[in-house]
Amino acid sequence: MDKEALNRSLDGTGLATWRYLERVDSTNSEAARWLEAGAPDICLVLANHQLAGRGRLGRRWHTPPDAALAMSLILRIPGDKAGNRFENPAALQLLAGLGAVALAEVLEDLYGLQAQIKWPNDLLVEGRKIAGVLVEAHWLGSQLDGVVIGIGVNILKRLVPPAETLLFPAASLEECLQSMLPDRLAILRSLVVKLLAWLPHIDTVEFLSAWETRLAWRGERVQVIRMADDSESGPIVQGHLTGLDASGRLILLSDAGEKVLVEAGDLRLRPVG
Ligand code: BT5
Question: Domain 3-212 class?
Fold first, then answer.
Protein backbone atom coordinates (compact mmCIF):
# COMPACT_ATOMS: atom_id res chain seq x y z
CA MET A 1 0.00 0.00 0.00
CA ASP A 2 1.33 3.45 -0.90
CA LYS A 3 2.00 5.15 2.45
CA GLU A 4 1.45 8.70 1.22
CA ALA A 5 -1.87 7.80 -0.36
CA LEU A 6 -2.81 6.02 2.85
CA ASN A 7 -1.96 9.07 4.95
CA ARG A 8 -4.02 11.25 2.64
CA SER A 9 -6.96 8.88 2.99
CA LEU A 10 -6.85 8.85 6.76
CA ASP A 11 -6.10 12.53 7.36
CA GLY A 12 -9.08 14.37 8.83
CA THR A 13 -11.06 11.22 9.63
CA GLY A 14 -10.89 11.82 13.40
CA LEU A 15 -8.33 9.10 14.16
CA ALA A 16 -5.78 10.02 16.84
CA THR A 17 -3.10 8.14 14.94
CA TRP A 18 -2.55 4.95 12.88
CA ARG A 19 -0.01 2.25 12.16
CA TYR A 20 0.43 0.57 8.79
CA LEU A 21 2.24 -2.75 8.51
CA GLU A 22 3.13 -4.48 5.28
CA ARG A 23 2.82 -7.81 7.09
CA VAL A 24 1.64 -8.76 10.57
CA ASP A 25 0.36 -11.82 12.41
CA SER A 26 -3.04 -10.24 13.03
CA THR A 27 -4.06 -6.58 13.20
CA ASN A 28 -6.15 -7.43 16.29
CA SER A 29 -3.06 -8.90 17.96
CA GLU A 30 -0.99 -5.87 16.99
CA ALA A 31 -3.75 -3.63 18.38
CA ALA A 32 -3.69 -5.59 21.66
CA ARG A 33 0.09 -5.12 21.92
CA TRP A 34 -0.28 -1.41 21.16
CA LEU A 35 -3.02 -1.05 23.79
CA GLU A 36 -0.73 -2.66 26.34
CA ALA A 37 2.04 -0.27 25.35
CA GLY A 38 -0.26 2.76 25.79
CA ALA A 39 -2.12 3.34 22.50
CA PRO A 40 -4.34 6.43 22.63
CA ASP A 41 -8.11 6.28 22.20
CA ILE A 42 -9.37 5.98 18.60
CA CYS A 43 -6.38 4.76 16.70
CA LEU A 44 -6.05 2.25 13.90
CA VAL A 45 -3.88 -0.67 12.87
CA LEU A 46 -3.89 -1.59 9.22
CA ALA A 47 -2.02 -4.32 7.38
CA ASN A 48 -1.54 -5.41 3.80
CA HIS A 49 -1.06 -9.06 4.68
CA GLN A 50 -2.00 -11.07 7.78
CA LEU A 51 -0.06 -14.24 8.51
CA ALA A 52 -2.40 -15.35 11.29
CA GLY A 53 -5.62 -13.37 10.80
CA ARG A 54 -8.24 -14.52 13.28
CA GLY A 55 -11.96 -15.10 13.26
CA ARG A 56 -14.03 -16.04 16.28
CA LEU A 57 -13.19 -19.10 18.39
CA GLY A 58 -9.62 -19.10 17.09
CA ARG A 59 -10.73 -19.68 13.49
CA ARG A 60 -8.45 -18.47 10.72
CA TRP A 61 -9.19 -15.40 8.60
CA HIS A 62 -7.55 -15.47 5.20
CA THR A 63 -5.75 -12.22 4.24
CA PRO A 64 -3.17 -12.68 1.47
CA PRO A 65 -1.10 -9.65 0.35
CA ASP A 66 -2.60 -6.76 -1.70
CA ALA A 67 -6.10 -8.20 -1.90
CA ALA A 68 -7.96 -7.36 1.31
CA LEU A 69 -8.71 -4.68 3.82
CA ALA A 70 -7.58 -5.78 7.28
CA MET A 71 -7.91 -3.22 10.03
CA SER A 72 -8.44 -2.89 13.76
CA LEU A 73 -9.86 0.16 15.48
CA ILE A 74 -8.66 0.66 19.06
CA LEU A 75 -10.93 2.28 21.61
CA ARG A 76 -9.29 2.96 24.96
CA ILE A 77 -11.62 2.91 27.90
CA PRO A 78 -11.02 5.60 30.53
CA GLY A 79 -9.94 4.22 33.92
CA ASP A 80 -12.79 5.85 35.86
CA LYS A 81 -15.60 3.88 34.27
CA ALA A 82 -18.29 6.33 35.32
CA GLY A 83 -19.81 8.19 32.44
CA ASN A 84 -17.87 6.45 29.70
CA ARG A 85 -19.58 5.00 26.65
CA PHE A 86 -19.10 1.44 27.88
CA GLU A 87 -21.04 1.78 31.12
CA ASN A 88 -23.78 -0.13 29.38
CA PRO A 89 -22.75 -3.81 29.57
CA ALA A 90 -24.39 -4.45 26.20
CA ALA A 91 -21.95 -2.07 24.52
CA LEU A 92 -19.50 -4.81 23.58
CA GLN A 93 -22.18 -6.74 21.73
CA LEU A 94 -23.31 -3.55 20.02
CA LEU A 95 -19.78 -2.94 18.72
CA ALA A 96 -19.88 -6.04 16.51
CA GLY A 97 -23.01 -4.52 15.02
CA LEU A 98 -21.21 -1.21 14.65
CA GLY A 99 -18.55 -2.73 12.39
CA ALA A 100 -21.14 -4.50 10.27
CA VAL A 101 -23.57 -1.56 9.98
CA ALA A 102 -20.79 0.91 9.15
CA LEU A 103 -19.36 -1.29 6.41
CA ALA A 104 -22.78 -2.08 4.93
CA GLU A 105 -23.58 1.63 4.72
CA VAL A 106 -20.23 2.41 3.12
CA LEU A 107 -20.72 -0.25 0.45
CA GLU A 108 -24.14 1.14 -0.32
CA ASP A 109 -22.88 4.77 -0.41
CA LEU A 110 -19.85 4.01 -2.60
CA TYR A 111 -21.15 1.23 -4.84
CA GLY A 112 -24.91 0.95 -4.38
CA LEU A 113 -24.43 -2.59 -2.97
CA GLN A 114 -27.13 -3.98 -0.70
CA ALA A 115 -25.21 -5.84 1.97
CA GLN A 116 -26.96 -7.85 4.66
CA ILE A 117 -25.76 -8.60 8.15
CA LYS A 118 -25.65 -12.22 9.18
CA TRP A 119 -25.99 -11.60 12.89
CA PRO A 120 -23.86 -10.90 14.73
CA ASN A 121 -20.73 -10.22 12.73
CA ASP A 122 -20.75 -11.26 9.07
CA LEU A 123 -21.49 -9.16 6.04
CA LEU A 124 -23.17 -10.87 3.09
CA VAL A 125 -23.75 -9.75 -0.46
CA GLU A 126 -26.13 -11.96 -2.43
CA GLY A 127 -25.83 -14.62 0.26
CA ARG A 128 -22.03 -14.82 0.26
CA LYS A 129 -19.72 -13.57 2.98
CA ILE A 130 -17.56 -10.66 1.94
CA ALA A 131 -16.46 -9.41 5.36
CA GLY A 132 -16.25 -10.34 9.02
CA VAL A 133 -15.96 -8.41 12.26
CA LEU A 134 -14.10 -9.55 15.38
CA VAL A 135 -14.53 -7.49 18.56
CA GLU A 136 -12.11 -8.22 21.40
CA ALA A 137 -12.15 -6.66 24.87
CA HIS A 138 -8.97 -6.14 26.87
CA TRP A 139 -9.01 -6.04 30.64
CA LEU A 140 -6.64 -4.83 33.32
CA GLY A 141 -7.71 -7.04 36.18
CA SER A 142 -11.43 -6.42 36.50
CA GLN A 143 -11.29 -3.12 34.63
CA LEU A 144 -11.97 -2.79 30.93
CA ASP A 145 -8.88 -1.17 29.42
CA GLY A 146 -9.76 -1.12 25.77
CA VAL A 147 -11.73 -2.64 22.93
CA VAL A 148 -10.51 -3.62 19.48
CA ILE A 149 -12.90 -3.78 16.53
CA GLY A 150 -11.26 -5.86 13.81
CA ILE A 151 -12.72 -5.78 10.32
CA GLY A 152 -11.66 -7.87 7.36
CA VAL A 153 -13.04 -7.16 3.88
CA ASN A 154 -12.48 -9.30 0.79
CA ILE A 155 -11.51 -6.84 -1.93
CA LEU A 156 -10.12 -8.92 -4.80
CA LYS A 157 -11.47 -12.13 -6.22
CA ARG A 158 -8.18 -14.01 -5.99
CA LEU A 159 -8.25 -13.92 -2.18
CA VAL A 160 -11.47 -15.86 -1.74
CA PRO A 161 -10.52 -19.10 0.02
CA PRO A 162 -11.44 -22.46 -1.56
CA ALA A 163 -15.04 -23.43 -0.78
CA GLU A 164 -14.06 -26.66 1.00
CA THR A 165 -12.17 -24.66 3.66
CA LEU A 166 -15.14 -22.43 4.47
CA LEU A 167 -18.03 -22.67 6.91
CA PHE A 168 -20.12 -20.41 4.68
CA PRO A 169 -19.89 -19.38 0.98
CA ALA A 170 -17.56 -16.43 0.43
CA ALA A 171 -17.06 -13.76 -2.23
CA SER A 172 -15.11 -10.57 -2.86
CA LEU A 173 -16.19 -7.05 -3.69
CA GLU A 174 -14.52 -7.41 -7.08
CA GLU A 175 -16.98 -10.21 -7.91
CA CYS A 176 -19.95 -8.27 -6.54
CA LEU A 177 -19.14 -5.13 -8.52
CA GLN A 178 -18.31 -6.92 -11.78
CA SER A 179 -17.57 -3.95 -14.02
CA MET A 180 -15.44 -1.88 -11.67
CA LEU A 181 -12.58 -2.51 -9.25
CA PRO A 182 -13.23 -1.71 -5.60
CA ASP A 183 -11.03 1.08 -4.23
CA ARG A 184 -9.43 -0.15 -1.00
CA LEU A 185 -8.40 3.30 0.28
CA ALA A 186 -11.77 4.89 -0.49
CA ILE A 187 -13.49 2.09 1.41
CA LEU A 188 -11.06 2.46 4.30
CA ARG A 189 -11.58 6.22 4.61
CA SER A 190 -15.37 6.03 4.42
CA LEU A 191 -15.42 3.12 6.87
CA VAL A 192 -13.38 4.98 9.50
CA VAL A 193 -15.57 8.07 9.12
CA LYS A 194 -18.74 5.98 9.41
CA LEU A 195 -17.48 4.00 12.42
CA LEU A 196 -16.60 7.18 14.29
CA ALA A 197 -19.89 8.84 13.33
CA TRP A 198 -21.98 5.92 14.69
CA LEU A 199 -19.81 5.22 17.74
CA PRO A 200 -21.45 7.72 20.14
CA HIS A 201 -24.89 6.48 19.06
CA ILE A 202 -24.63 2.71 19.35
CA ASP A 203 -27.23 2.55 22.11
CA THR A 204 -29.82 4.58 20.22
CA VAL A 205 -32.99 3.47 18.45
CA GLU A 206 -31.56 4.87 15.19
CA PHE A 207 -28.53 2.60 15.36
CA LEU A 208 -30.53 -0.50 16.25
CA SER A 209 -32.91 0.21 13.45
CA ALA A 210 -30.03 0.64 10.95
CA TRP A 211 -28.71 -2.77 12.09
CA GLU A 212 -32.09 -4.47 12.18
CA THR A 213 -33.18 -3.40 8.73
CA ARG A 214 -30.09 -5.06 7.27
CA LEU A 215 -30.43 -8.37 9.09
CA ALA A 216 -30.21 -11.36 6.77
CA TRP A 217 -33.27 -13.68 6.85
CA ARG A 218 -35.39 -11.19 8.78
CA GLY A 219 -38.95 -12.52 8.91
CA GLU A 220 -37.74 -15.93 7.76
CA ARG A 221 -37.35 -19.20 9.60
CA VAL A 222 -33.85 -19.78 10.94
CA GLN A 223 -32.04 -22.01 13.35
CA VAL A 224 -29.37 -21.10 15.84
CA ILE A 225 -26.76 -23.78 16.32
CA ARG A 226 -24.23 -23.92 19.13
CA MET A 227 -20.71 -24.56 17.93
CA ALA A 228 -17.95 -26.39 19.74
CA ASP A 229 -14.75 -25.62 17.85
CA ASP A 230 -15.84 -26.06 14.26
CA SER A 231 -18.35 -28.84 14.85
CA GLU A 232 -22.00 -28.26 15.40
CA SER A 233 -23.67 -29.58 18.51
CA GLY A 234 -27.25 -29.29 17.40
CA PRO A 235 -29.87 -26.56 17.10
CA ILE A 236 -30.64 -24.57 20.22
CA VAL A 237 -33.68 -22.95 18.80
CA GLN A 238 -35.61 -22.70 15.56
CA GLY A 239 -38.08 -20.02 14.71
CA HIS A 240 -38.74 -16.82 12.85
CA LEU A 241 -36.12 -14.13 13.03
CA THR A 242 -38.03 -11.03 14.05
CA GLY A 243 -35.33 -8.49 14.93
CA LEU A 244 -33.05 -7.18 17.68
CA ASP A 245 -33.62 -6.06 21.26
CA ALA A 246 -32.05 -2.91 22.73
CA SER A 247 -28.85 -4.80 23.62
CA GLY A 248 -28.35 -6.14 20.11
CA ARG A 249 -29.58 -9.62 21.01
CA LEU A 250 -31.38 -11.52 18.29
CA ILE A 251 -35.12 -12.02 18.79
CA LEU A 252 -36.63 -15.24 17.47
CA LEU A 253 -40.25 -16.28 17.65
CA SER A 254 -39.90 -19.98 18.40
CA ASP A 255 -42.07 -22.64 16.80
CA ALA A 256 -43.84 -22.90 20.17
CA GLY A 257 -44.78 -19.22 19.85
CA GLU A 258 -42.34 -17.98 22.50
CA LYS A 259 -40.05 -14.99 22.18
CA VAL A 260 -36.46 -16.20 22.50
CA LEU A 261 -33.49 -13.86 22.94
CA VAL A 262 -30.15 -15.06 21.60
CA GLU A 263 -26.84 -13.64 22.86
CA ALA A 264 -23.83 -13.54 20.57
CA GLY A 265 -21.44 -16.34 21.37
CA ASP A 266 -20.28 -19.57 19.86
CA LEU A 267 -23.31 -19.71 17.61
CA ARG A 268 -24.10 -20.29 13.99
CA LEU A 269 -27.16 -18.81 12.33
CA ARG A 270 -28.68 -20.47 9.26
CA PRO A 271 -31.85 -20.36 7.26
CA VAL A 272 -34.19 -23.36 7.51
CA GLY A 273 -35.92 -24.94 4.57
C1 BT5 B 1 -15.11 -13.59 11.35
O2 BT5 B 1 -14.97 -14.72 12.10
O3 BT5 B 1 -15.78 -13.47 10.37
C4 BT5 B 1 -14.26 -12.41 11.84
C5 BT5 B 1 -13.19 -12.06 10.86
C6 BT5 B 1 -12.42 -10.84 11.32
C7 BT5 B 1 -11.19 -10.63 10.50
C8 BT5 B 1 -10.51 -9.32 10.85
S9 BT5 B 1 -9.26 -8.92 9.72
C10 BT5 B 1 -8.68 -7.67 10.74
C11 BT5 B 1 -8.75 -8.20 12.15
N12 BT5 B 1 -7.54 -8.92 12.49
C13 BT5 B 1 -7.80 -10.22 12.72
O14 BT5 B 1 -6.94 -11.09 13.03
N15 BT5 B 1 -9.12 -10.47 12.55
C16 BT5 B 1 -9.85 -9.26 12.22
P17 BT5 B 1 -15.86 -16.03 11.95
O18 BT5 B 1 -17.31 -15.66 11.91
O19 BT5 B 1 -15.39 -16.92 13.04
O20 BT5 B 1 -15.49 -16.59 10.53
C21 BT5 B 1 -14.29 -17.31 10.34
C22 BT5 B 1 -14.56 -18.31 9.21
O23 BT5 B 1 -14.73 -17.59 7.98
C24 BT5 B 1 -13.40 -19.27 8.94
O25 BT5 B 1 -13.49 -20.42 9.75
C26 BT5 B 1 -13.57 -19.60 7.46
O27 BT5 B 1 -14.55 -20.62 7.28
C28 BT5 B 1 -14.17 -18.32 6.90
N29 BT5 B 1 -13.16 -17.44 6.27
C30 BT5 B 1 -11.82 -17.33 6.51
N31 BT5 B 1 -11.28 -16.35 5.76
C32 BT5 B 1 -12.30 -15.83 5.02
C33 BT5 B 1 -12.38 -14.80 4.06
N34 BT5 B 1 -11.33 -14.05 3.72
N35 BT5 B 1 -13.61 -14.56 3.52
C36 BT5 B 1 -14.70 -15.25 3.86
N37 BT5 B 1 -14.69 -16.25 4.76
C38 BT5 B 1 -13.49 -16.54 5.34
Answer: alpha beta
Nearest alpha carbon to residue 166 among 134, 129, 133, 125: 129
Q: Would you say the CB of residue 48 lies under 6 angstroms from ligand 1?
A: no
264: DSSP letter = S
* pLDDT on residue 233: 59
The residues with which 129 forms a beta bridge, in sequence order, are 124, 170
Q: Taking the complete model, does pTM exceed 0.90, yes or no?
A: yes
Pocket lining: 54 vs ligand 1, CB cutoff 6 Å: yes
Q: Does residue 166 have its Cβ closer than 6 Å to ligand 1?
A: yes
Determine the CATH number of domain 221-271.
2.30.30.100
Provide CATH 2.30.30.100 ranges for the chain. 221-271
pLDDT band at 122 (very low <50, low <70, confident <90, very high): very high
State if residue 55 touches ligand 1 by the CB under 6 angstroms criterion.
yes
